Amino acid sequence: MQSSEHKEIISSGTSKVPDALAYPRILMLKDVPEVEGQFVYVLKAYPEDGLAITIFRDVKEGEVYLSINDFDGNPIDLTNENHKYQWAAMDFAQNDSSKFVAIMKSAGIQKVILYVSVDDEDLRLVDMRISLNKFYGPGMIKDLFGKIYPTQEIIKTISLDENVLNAVKRGEGSYKGNLILKCSKFKTIIRGKEMLPLYARIARS
């Protein structure tokens, strides 16, 4: 498909678009003691399932390459109506990709992987990966794309000292329900041979 600003090429695998990176798993709060003392975003929890969308701007050739996969990194065939996320992938490709490309161009961003969580018909941009071990924080995602696309729901930002952490664990006040905690400044942790974002999930049901 083409627009006046760029030529967009949808592909499940070219030398221009690297292999899709699966969405990293989010550990339960009890398994992430490193989160204590961090300044974090408290977010409404979302399903760890949906679209992993790689957008690559070939500045030299003036082309944009778009690859749409699921959270496990498997390509989504846009012609396969039986795939549970085919409709979401088609909607993004046809209606939203050009908006993201325009913002990437103005911000000087050449390549990203966008992770869009799908909850029934509710789609939300929940992470933005710019390298193997680098993600943008929730605030940056909202600032960049919040006006053109739904983003993860931010409940508050707070320093996670011992008292706050205990309140989060108990589900007091605004900490009710299922939550995800993300550091305001992206950090990673190591579990065995696996490198994961310093995120934590609280599931109460």
* Named CATH topology: D-amino Acid Aminotransferase, Chain A, domain 1
Helix content: 10-25%
Secondary-structure element sequence?
A: EEEEHEEEHEHEEEE
Radius of gyration, Cα only, in angstroms? 18 Å
CATH C-level class is Alpha Beta
Q: What is the end-to-end distance?
A: 43 Å
CATH H-level superfamily: DNA ligase/mRNA capping enzyme
CATH architecture group name:
2-Layer Sandwich
Spans with pLDDT under 50 lasting ≥5 residues? 1-6, 11-15
Could you please describe the fold and organization of this structure?
The chain has helices at residues 86-107, 138-145, 162-170, and strands at 7-10, 39-44, 50-58, 63-70, 111-119, 122-131, 134-135, 154-159, 179-183, 188-191, 194-197, 199-202. With 205 residues, it is an alpha+beta fold. It has a single domain (7-202), classed as 2-Layer Sandwich (D-amino Acid Aminotransferase, Chain A, domain 1). Mean pLDDT is 90; it is low at 1-6 and 11-15. It starts with 6 loop residues before the first strand and ends with a strand. It contains three helices and twelve strands; from the N terminus they run E-E-E-E-H-E-E-E-H-E-H-E-E-E-E. A hairpin with a 2-residue loop joins strand 5 and strand 6.
Name a few traits of the molecule:
single chain; 3 helices; four-stranded antiparallel β-sheet; D-amino Acid Aminotransferase, Chain A, domain 1; alpha+beta; 12 strands; 19% helix; 205 residues
